[in-house]
Design a protein that fits this description.
The protein contains four helices and 23 strands. The chain folds into three domains: 90 residues, Trypsin-like serine proteases (Thrombin, subunit H, Beta Barrel), CATH 2.40.10; 82 residues, Beta Barrel (Thrombin, subunit H); 89 residues, Sandwich (Immunoglobulin-like), CATH 2.60.40.780. The chain is mainly beta. The termini are far apart. The strands form five sheets. Strands 5-4-1-2-3-7-6 form a seven-stranded antiparallel β-sheet. Strands 9-10-11-14-13-12 form a six-stranded antiparallel barrel. It has a five-stranded antiparallel β-sheet with strand order 16-22-21-18-19, with no helix packed on it.
């Protein structure tokens, strides 16, 4: 082979390599849309048949938390309910970004706000085991005019517009965020509206003059405070400064009463623990201060581990659980790190 031909082949290989690297870099989202790229794992596709003359319709939703091995999804109410009484899909199909060929039936909850009162619904989905979501997900600042925003969920896929839209303002009557020049389109309802810092709202109108979204703060208030579902999305990944309890040298005693102290115990006691029927609920926060990921497992009523979530380094995960439900924290190799019983002394657990 001639020297010039070899040189040409080298240049061609380098060019192809550069293209691959460039495409990989864009796929990771290295610019202002990086947060939107990261939050795709939070977004689910919803296919609903609401009856009548309306065929199956698609929309999106996003995960806001977990409780008792069920994922909590919020979406626009009109995605799963029609205008007439009884027109709803009580078991809509749910697809996940991490396994887009897999579908599972969700359970539409009885709570809901119609279009003129907020357009909000909640769906519970059994965790298939592979589903994870980012908790550092909210932009809590007020969406100012000209703020660049993206949508995750359009044209039936998890595509993100190359160019962002811009906040035009907030409707003084509905308090909805109005966005112009956003490539959303019909079928984007229920998906998150995302700035470079996190979710600012949920798309509720994708066919008007503006794309309109309900502010995330209003959704959190309704879901967490009024409907009492577990909400685990945080703003900025801020870590609480509350002290964590020290591991107890004693064997754990599982109690179901409100005065149970709880505690952190040696992993050697895991085989002797299981959940008891719960009547006293509590919030338990796990903070990962380790350099690597950790995973959280609930010990069910048979003492068997049930996977709940993976928590990244410097992130935290809040669980609405019961006093009598033990939890196991493991490292990336599945090795037990801590055994936790909720109670007065375990509102916050630092995993070191």
């Amino acid at each position: 082979m001639l020297r010039d031909e070899v040189f040409a082949l080298v240049l061609l290989a380098l060019s192809a390599s550069s293209i691959c690297v460039s495409e990989y870099t864009k796929a990771q989202g290295t610019g202002e849309d990086a947060k939107a790229m990261t939050l795709r794992s939070n977004v689910v596709k919803i296919t609903a048949a609401i009856g009548g003359d309306v065929g199956p319709q698609s929309g999106f939703g996003f995960i806001v938390g977990e409780q008792e091995n069920r994922i909590i999804v919020v979406t626009a109410d009109h995605v799963v309910r029609g205008d007439s009484a009884g027109a709803e899909d009580k078991a809509p199909l749910i697809s996940f970004f991490l396994n887009q060929g897999y579908q599972v039936r969700g359970a539409l909850e009885g709570v809901g706000l119609p279009k003129d009162r907020g357009d909000l619904a909640v769906i519970l989905v059994e965790n298939p085991g592979f589903a994870t979501f980012v908790t550092d997900a909210i932009d809590s600042t007020r969406p100012e005019r000209k703020l660049p925003v993206w949508v995750v969920g359009r044209a039936g896929g998890w595509n993100i517009p190359v160019s962002p839209g811009a906040v035009a303002g907030v409707d003084p009557f509905t308090q909805r965020i109005q966005v112009e020049n956003l490539s959303a389109g019909v079928g984007s309802s229920g998906g998150p509206l995302i700035s470079s810092k996190g979710i600012v709202g949920m798309i509720v109108d994708d066919a008007g003059l503006y794309t309109e979204a309900t502010p995330i703060a209003a959704i959190q208030t309704q879901v967490q405070e009024n409907w009492h579902y577990n909400w685990q999305l945080t703003a900025g990944g801020a870590m609480s400064s509350l002290p964590s309890p020290r591991p107890s040298p004693f064997a754990p005693v599982n109690q179901a009463t409100a005065d149970a102290s709880g505690g952190i115990f040696s992993c050697k006691y895991e085989g002797g623990l299981k959940s008891l029927p719960g009547t006293v609920s509590t919030n338990l926060v796990f903070r990962n201060t380790r350099p690597r990921n950790i995973s959280l497992f609930w010990l069910n009523y048979e003492g068997r581990r049930i996977f709940y979530s993976t928590v990244r380094n410097s992130a935290q995960y809040e669980i609405l659980t019961y006093i009598s439900h033990p939890w196991v924290v493991v490292d990336e190799q599945g090795k037990c790190l801590e055994l936790v019983l909720p109670g007065k002394s375990t509102a916050t657990v630092d995993v070191e």
